[in-house]
Amino acid sequence: MKMPTLSRLDLRQRIDALPRINIACIPTPMQEAHNLSNELGVRILIKREDLTGLAMGGNKVRHMDFCMADAIQKGADVSLNVNPWMSNNARIIGAASRRVGLDYINVAPASKSRPIQGNLLIQDIIGTDMHMLDTSEPSEVNEYVDKLETKLVEQGRTVYNHIKEHMSRSSATIAYMEATLEIDEQLKKFDIAGNIEMFIASGGAHGGLMLASQALTLPWTVHGVLVGKPEESYADVVTWSNNALNHLGFSERLTWGDVEQLDKYIGPGYAKPGQDCIEAIRMVAELEGVLLDPVYTGKVMAAIIDYAKDNRFTEEDTVIFMHTGGLPELFDFADELKRRDYT
Ligand SMILES: Cc1ncc(COP(=O)(O)O)c(C=O)c1O
């Protein structure tokens, strides 16, 4: 698939035509990581998407500008979502829903005995109606959610069901098509000689960066890093991107053949950090004072470290690490992350 060539203004106008509520604190900083660059022998810039400003931030806050506008336009008064216990999506959709005046219900499969920590704790603090289920069996979860939605409708509520509303996910692609414009502008202040090698956890945002950088003919390679096996990590880049393309009025459609997903850095599985991820988190914390998370960004940094050690970058390359947030998850993984026991 080939995106049509667009001017920056063309892309800006298509995005500006969509309903929007400004929730995200953007632009986010682009920071030079000098110590990490010295350590790895390649220039590394960190795009601080962890600093988007809502309930501990992350990439998904940008999505909410479009997703919440869609919910409001549809007259919703309650946001209904299904996400696992470690989900940043659940936290950010919750906080954005509250910000725009919606009630928030999150159904969390397989979470009955989970400690209220990390993203679950934040959902509790913002006043989420949390349904923590024993089961993760899709048919049982769906039946539970269907019944819940029916009950809400009978009570006269207008439900925005994030499982059914495509904007809940394709807003990621739209938001990161816009972020491409932001990054392109920011890079003018950095003296960039060679290629841009961008790394991000694979998902809707990955699709957005890929599509927009191609449309704007930017010399970027966007590496999408899988953080779980395809069946467990919800990185449906193709469906989410195609919904976004449709929404923005493009007739082009992505296929799986167009999408590069690096699958070497998954470790034991989704929400299971391997040793390379843990070491990546420690390295960036020690050298830069920047915290990464053990579910997404630690694995993305593990990919960058591996590429650098394998001499896969040239001297002129600039690596952009998309720090998509996920920081509340640090606290759910204390046992894996702590260096030793202190008792
Ligand atoms: C920290 C973090 N990074 C990246 C992603 C991928 O997000 P998206 O599919 O919206 O691109 C997620 C999704 O949950 C996330 O929580």
Outline of the structure:
The chain is α/β, with parallel strands linked by helices. The chain folds into two domains: 222 residues, 3-Layer(aba) Sandwich (Rossmann fold); 101 residues, Rossmann fold.
Please describe the topology of this protein:
Layout: H1 8-16, E1 30-32, H2 34-40, E2 43-48, H3 60-73, E3 78-82, H4 88-99, E4 103-108, H5 118-125, E5 129-132, H6 138-154, E6 159-161, H7 167-187, E7 196-201, H8 204-215, E8 220-225, H9 237-247, E9 261-262, H10 275-288, H11 297-309, E10 318-323, H12 334-337
Parallel strand pairs: 2-10, 3-4, 3-6, 4-5, 7-8, 7-10, 8-9
Antiparallel strand pairs: 1-2
Give keywords:
343 residues; Rossmann fold; globular; 10 strands; 4-stranded parallel beta sheet; 6-stranded mixed beta sheet
